[in-house]
User: Fold these one by one.
Assistant:
Number 1:
Amino acid sequence: MVKTYRHESILGFFKGMSFPIASIAVVNSVLFGVYSNALLALTATSHHERRLQPPSYTHVFIAGCTGGFLQAYCLAPFDLIKVRLQNQTEPRARQGGPPPRYRGPVHCAASIFQEEGPRGLFRGAWALTLRDTPTLGIYFVSYEWLCRQATPGGQNPSSTTVLVAGGFAGITSWVTATPLDVIKSRMQMAGLEQREYQGLLDCMVSSARQEGLGVFFRGLTINSARAFPVNAVTFLSYEYLLHLWG
């Protein structure tokens, strides 16, 4: 944090933010929409009926995995651009100094398309899919389990329960997601660093050989700290809107 602030000022902490803001509504709409509809198809019960007839954890896991799988392909290009911009460590352009490689998200997307082709925008997509598919199954199972433990049968969970369950579900999902998140980010940066991995397995083996197994848990602390408030608010919004419009 100190090095980022000294080298890039306070703006360094907000790199790559515009694309996530532009995409988060679409990505979450896909995730929660597919999850809810997959659960409806598996159980034939609406959201309001699920408190009286709770779905099995197997159905929750399958629905979550389905949402995670489809979300990953919507997220891949946006996530790639975010990672590239966040890893661009040059300070803001100064007179007489070298300009940054990417001038913004649109320029970043255009540069990747020009230099790496259409497939370049989906670099790391397999790692992202492998990260999100099981992780989001675990995410929804954790949330459901915590809500059921704190809520009497047949009743809707309170706002406090939803906030706490959503926050801890977010932390649980990031504990399982971080190893593949590290690999995904390295594969996404490979095109910029002119380094080509032969695939997902090659990236994992190379990283472990050079930096040890601890490399797969880099960023876990900050991811977990971010996950609690973000997912607490996400689930509260989800439950409130379904109740409002259901």
Number 2:
Amino acid sequence: MGRLDGKVILLSAAAQGIGRATAIAFAKEGAKVIATDINKTKLQELENYPGIQVRILDVTKREQIEELAKEIERIDVLCNIAGFVHHGTILDCEEQDWNFTMNLNVRSMYLMIKTFLPKMIKQKSGNIINMSSVASSIKGTVDTPSLQQRIKAQPNPDQALKDFLARQRIGRMATAEEVAHLFVYLASEESAYMTGNEVVIDGGWSL
């Protein structure tokens, strides 16, 4: 018997990285997973896993979210994972970069919650998990395809990788699968008494 048996879970950014690992972890624990992303090719790979159905979805588009909601009668868990980290300082960030980041990282969560929360209220149950980066004064880093792309884009990728590793308190980066374990806990009945909490995976930076 899985920890998530019978739960209907909708998550964003499921095509790769943390989203993909989380979708797979949810399915392994018995959930019915609706995995969404804009990357059709990568997303379709998840169809090979029992319990996962995929939908192409741009979480910055209200109309697409509302259309998807018409297909979903019940939702037990909503996981907002989609996000983008711009490399560099504010001096390297153009206005369009700022707008894109806020639209994807913040507004998309508003749109998803605004659309699916009424279903949870109607059924008198539900769980919303929002993910965000802690890359600030806390330098916990997760090894994902997007991180690797950022590293490769640097003038000296080898040095950039060494710099990322050097700032990790336990000497390595987190894996997407390690983050997925937390998602399973938060989506399960085991965390039923947690509400409005912030949980940080930072490799020791909070100590």
Number 3:
Amino acid sequence: MVKIHPDRKTLATGEETSSPYLTTEKESFTIWMKSLVFNTNGCTVFDSKGNIIYRVDNYNSKSCREVYLMDLHGRVLLTLRRQKFGLFKTWEGYRSPTGTAESATNLDYFRVKNNMFKIHSKDSSSSYRVTTGSCRNNEEYCYKMVTRGSSLGIEESCGRLVAEVKRKQSRNGLELGDDVLTMMVESQVDHCFIIGLILTHSLINCKL
């Protein structure tokens, strides 16, 4: 089951493992909703030291049916695919254990779909249900993504906030462009999985 805490079991092995992408303490990341390839469509993620840790290169395409989350060196970590399930916009994410899109396995996957209708107001909000599991007959509702205005929160099913994304501010408190974001991730959380959810949210809303 796709979990964001290290003391949970993974689906692929059935054994307790520690992800190399776990935060050891509360950490901040910067998300630039552009690819480094000639500023084309995509996404680049920096850690607090300014190092690139994730990237998405969509080149001239937008709202693709399949998107790859890669590390700096182009190794595929997650494959995100759009699926058709009724009237809802639904995306599924698959781990790629060997670093290629072909290695994506449904043994370790998550699904995100719109859970509520958007409320068109000044403080507009919407909710997205995140289910995880080894197959569609063995899913578990584990997380929820909630947008409130321009911020996005990722919560466990019990309501505990594990990550939050907002527009990045300068040291003077001024907001930067709407394509530059700050992501705060709590301790002992798999930030690769969190980035996968954030990208999925952007895909559902046609922002990537």
Number 4:
Amino acid sequence: MYSLCCLFQIKDDWPGYNLDLFTYPEHYHDDIENVYIPHGVIMNRIERLARYVMEDFEDSKIMVLCVLKGGYKFCADLVEYIKVLGCSSNRYLETRVEFIRLKSYLNDQSTEDLHIIGSSDLSFLRGKAIVDTGKTMKALLKHVETFEPKMVKVAGLLVKRLSNMTESLTDYVGFEIPNRFVVGYALDYNEYFRDLNHICVISKTGKMKYKI
């Protein structure tokens, strides 16, 4: 369970920022309601998470398992901050990055089926210290643990606050948010909106336009 003193919580009634305050791809103008988390805030928060990782790991090497596609920007920026912080200190945390692709959403609904796309052989994790970056964790963690890693920590940019949420599987949390469907910063709706730098709330118009 993550520590509440280190948690960035976004309240249920947070309205987000007016779109006119930011730049974004103009073709999405009617498809998003607001800018929920600006890109600059995201980056600053990821830098703080990188500091937590540096503080927690005694090993000089870690394996970062990035969950595609929605986790690729978060993973890249987290690893970059870990490198920068290591270069500016007397302790460098060597990182190796591997990728796994999962699919569990249809439109804006999470399905019960979790599909691992590509190789499901994660034997390269055996005996390694891992930081797992992604959002569909329970089934993936069960799969990862069969390969006997030395240690597993989970980093997630977003954790949704749900009424039936009894525990968190995430050790490093960027933001705890209400149960709203958000897009941007590589998070998609049927493969659209990944090119948004900010995290935004999708509008009803956007859901209808890109629904499959």
